[in-house]
Specification:
Elements (H helix, E strand, L loop, with lengths): L20 H22 L2 H11 L9 H42 L4
């Protein structure tokens, strides 16, 4: 008596390829991270300042007397610093001329 065995039935197939699951998880994770980064940016002070600038509401348009006094003080300080820089440039030129004269005198045959 010979018994013929039938081949085993194939295992049940899943409706998708498991190798496609890894990139899908990576894309979803990337979108979640990008969403968190964008949300934190939109809640930041930088985004608020950009939005105010786009809307045209600048703080410089709302300058009151206290701020204008502060601006005038800063302008005066800048003018003072420009004067100091000009004075230091003159001193540097004078020093360079003195060094050049000293070098010319010390050269043999001059």
């Amino acid at each position: 008596m010979i018994l013929a065995q039938t081949p085993a039935p194939p295992p049940p197939m899943i409706p998708f390829d498991p190798n496609q699951l890894i990139p899908l998880i990576g894309m979803v994770g990337g979108m979640v991270i990008a969403g968190i980064v964008l949300w934190s940016f939109f809640k930041s002070d930088i985004a608020r300042a950009i939005g105010e600038r786009i809307r045209g509401r600048r703080k410089s348009q709302e300058v009151d007397d206290a701020e204008s006094g502060h601006v005038a003080e800063l302008e005066q300080r800048v003018l003072d610093m420009q004067g100091q820089i000009a004075e230091m440039a003159e001193r540097l030129d004078f020093t360079e001329r003195l060094l050049a004269q000293k070098r010319e005198r010390s050269l043999p045959g001059a």
